[in-house]
Amino acid sequence: MPGIIETISLIVSSLATTTLAANALYLGTSALIYGGLALGAAALQGAFASKPAVPKPDDGSYNLKQSVPSLAYVLGRAKKGSDYVFLEEVGGKAHHIMVWAGHRIQGFVQHYLHDDKVTLNADGGVTDPGHYDKDGTSFVHIKTKLGLNAETAYSEVVTAFPTIWNNNCRGDGLASVYMRVSTVDQKDFLDVFPNQMPEHSAVGDGALLYDPRKDSTQGGSGSHRYNNPSTWEFSTNLALMRLWHLCHPVGGKMAYENMYLPDWANAANVCDQNVTNRTGGTEKRYHGGFWFRASNDPIEVGRIMDEAAELVVYERADGKIGVHAGEFVTPDVRLTAENVYSIRVDKNKRRANTVLGVRGRYVNTAKDYITEDAAIYGDPYAVVDDNTERTRTFENAAIQSHNHCQRKQKLTFVRANARRVSVVADYTADGARDIPYRRFVTLHYPSRGLAEAVVEITSSVTIDLRNMRISFSGILVNSSLYSFNAATEEGEPGESVEPLPDTGVPVPVDFAATIQTEVVSGGATAAFINATWDFVDDTLTYELEYDRTSGSTGVQSVFSEAGATQVRSGYLVDGEEYKVRLRAWGGGSKSEWTDYIFLTATADPVAPDPVSGVSVTPAAGQAEFQWTAPNSANYYACRIYINTTNDLGTATLAATEYGPPSATDLRVVTSLAAGTYYGWLRSINPSGVPGTAVATGSFDVTA
Fold first, then answer.
1. Does residue 447 share a domain with residue 307?
2. What strands, in cross-sheet order, belong to the sheet with 93-101?
3. Residue 37 above 50 pLDDT?
4. Cα separations (Å) of 610 from 105, 624, 628, 636?
5. How many CA atoms lie within 13 A of 537 on its CB side?
6. Could you tell me which residues come within 8 angstroms of residue 41 by beta carbon, excluding any fewer than 6 positions away?
């Protein structure tokens, strides 16, 4: 064959991976090498086919309703909504069944309704926030299933919809959520459901992962077996996630037998190393979590994990898939000037390419898994030159720690500004044939200022077997590449906007209620309640509720005009005691009630004149009281008080005699024991307002 025979690089690097090279790994690298240089039109078309982008963490804040959604996969711990598979209503209850993940998961950690964390009771009823639980009745119930190989149907749905949903509707292998929402009274709807129908999302621990370190048949210690998923465990280790993805049908479609497991065990150990963060606490070096869909490009999904954990996946000489962990390894391949045919060194000092700072974004698990900005690494304002790139943005959906994000920002900064080299070397030199399987090599070329320099390979390694040459490109680094002092380098993240808690409609301020009267037809007066409060907003209306303390008439209420600061009740029953309270309404929702105020209805507050011509005639066991009613239009009755001492304050009401004004009247009080008594006669008006008491003096009752 004419021309130079070249092979494609065996390294699939997250630092500089081409789409063609990455596809080569998935399609089988050896087939590419020995089958020819061109993939063919059909293969190329598939290799570069556009697929949906990996969802951002914020994309999971809502539930998806579509005919046939692509299955979602969750690795590590993540917060996301679900995909609807059932939504029907019967008997005033809406039944929702949603798939949270298309596989077995470890479990659900926290449920949300809209942006509110919820607390569930033993029956799955939502008890907090309290507006979902009214008078001890939970209007929202949530139940879940983990996605076992053999699940059971939700019995509530089978009972409610036996013709369309039966016990065969199990959802095997699907982690799901069942939510039942009950109807409430119309006046309470926005109190119970202030955001309309509840929107569910959840934080959950995702897929179980194989760990070669726990497999006693692979040099580890434990019961893990790669061909038995029931022995796997949940983990947030990014290297284990990448191993799972390479061997899963939605990823690399490879077999665990094709993985070089010692490499993967080492990478998992590196991910599990403890690092110190800015607060002095410790956390794992490369742990995280994210979710994606089966329809997402597996190369892009893999890149997220490779980038977050500093992994470089490659094919070894024996055909197995190994991985370079996110750590510095002292190179065991050394190239000298005698082995190098050509070298190009780029000092990378052009202002247009200089990166002064790196802006990072990560998923903050402490703030409900929102994506927020990390502290800027570097100083983007160090040079005043519009030709300078200044900043570069780093964002990774799998990173869930500020310290982790800052470490990646530093690496991005270092690599962006590092010197670059391109080398063409002798393929027959000592160790040169191992270059495709190495991440770092030593280059000794003093005449170009490279004395025992360490090169991190960032490009495809090209082998020219016709001329026995090997070529690659990389950046110059040192052994402190992964060093990080959190106390001085991590910085402090900016404050993110936190939503204020919904306080609802405010309770009325300075509520006061008084009894007032007005003249009605016929010249009579009637009592009503006048309530007042402080102005808050033009959009609020107020409801005044009043009821007799005896409960004989039932609760009555009246509403104010919008923006008003007072409202009056209807006419009251004269002389009755009432309990009164107030609440505000706004946007269809209402506030809590104020405390009760107790008032007695008084239609006529003017006391009548006192009675006159008072006398008493005692007899055996009784006494006859006589008087003349006053000439007062509002005279209503006369009350007779009796006491064994001359003290009106402790006297007992013995009788009430009703009659017209100016009339001479009398009343006999019986059942009196023998002894000396004192009497008082007191006029009252229809509202019970008394006039001045008139004493009868003492009198003796005989046996």
1. no
2. 83-90, 93-101, 175-182, 140-145
3. no
4. 88, 19, 9, 12
5. 9
6. none
Q: Closest Cα to residue 172, out of 200, 147, 135?
A: 147
For 11, the token pair is 């390294």
Residue 441 and residue 352: Cα distance in Å, rounded?
Answer: 29
Separation between Cα atoms, residue 202 and residue 108, nearest integer Å: 7
Q: Are residues 103 and 200 in the same domain?
A: yes
Smallest Cα–Cα separation from 591: which of 514, 502, 512? 502
Least confident of 97-106, 523-532, 617-626: 523-532
Q: What is the pLDDT of residue 384?
A: 55
Beta bridge partners of 667: 625
| H or E element at residue 30 | helix 29-35
Q: How crowded is residue 548: how many other Cβ atoms within 10 Å of its Cβ? A: 17
Stated length of the chain: 703
- Is there a domain that residue 607 lies in? no
Position 23 pLDDT exceeds 60: no
Same domain, 459 and 476: yes
Which residues lie below 8 Å from residue 114, measured CB to CB, with a gap of 6+?
195, 198, 199
Greatest Cα pair distance, the chain, in angstroms, is: 148
CA distances from residue 74 to 49, 155, 230 in whole angstroms, order as listed: 24, 26, 17
Distance CA 146, CA 152 (A): 11
- What's the rounded mean pLDDT across residues 5-28? 35
Q: Which domain holds residue 405?
A: 349-417
The reply to whether 107 and 191 lie within a common domain is: yes
In a domain, 210, yes or no: no
Are 295 and 70 in contact, with CB atoms under 8 Å apart?
yes
Instruction: Report whether the peptide linkage leading into residue 690 is cis, meaning its omega lies within 30 degrees of zero.
Output: no
Please state, as a whole number, how many other Cβ atoms lie within 10 Å of the Cβ of residue 342. 10
Q: Could you tell me the CA-to-CA distances from 332 to 270, 438, 463 in Å, in that order?
A: 20, 9, 19
Per-residue tokens: 150: 């053999």
Q: Residue 43, SS3?
A: helix
Neighbours of 468 (CB within 10 A): 12
SS3 87: strand
pTM: 0.75
β-pair type (11-13, 312-315): antiparallel
> Tokens standing for 249?
């049908």
For residue 562, which of 582, 581, 543, 589 has the smallest C-alpha distance?
543
| Amino acid (1-letter code) at residue 2 | P
Give the DSSP per-residue string, 452-505.
EEEEEE-S--EEETTTTEEEEEEEEE-TTTT---HHHHT--PPPPP-PPP---S
- Which residues in 215-302 belong to E strands, given as ranges? 233-234, 274-276, 282-284, 290-293
Residues 36, 109 within the same domain: no
Number of domains in the chain: 6
pLDDT in tens, 87-133: 999 999 999 999 999 999 999 999 999 989 999 999 999 999 988 98
Average the pLDDT over 428-440 and give the result: 94
Q: In the listed set 579, 600, 621, which residue is the last one of a domain according to the structure?
A: 600
The predicted pLDDT at position 34 comes to 30
Number of DSSP helices (H) and strands (E) in the chain, helices first: 10, 47
- Within a 10 A sphere around the Cβ of 244, how many other Cβ atoms? 24
Burial of 267 (0-12, 13-18, 19+ CB in 10 A): buried
Average pLDDT over residues 222-237: 96
CATH of the domain at 424: 2.30.300.10
Tell me, yes or no, whether 426 lies in a domain: yes
The reply to whether 178 and 118 lie within a common domain is: yes
Same domain (yes/no): 344, 445:
yes
Burial of 350 (0-12, 13-18, 19+ CB in 10 A): exposed
CATH number of the domain where residue 544 is located? 2.60.40.10
Pair (93, 172) in one structural domain? yes
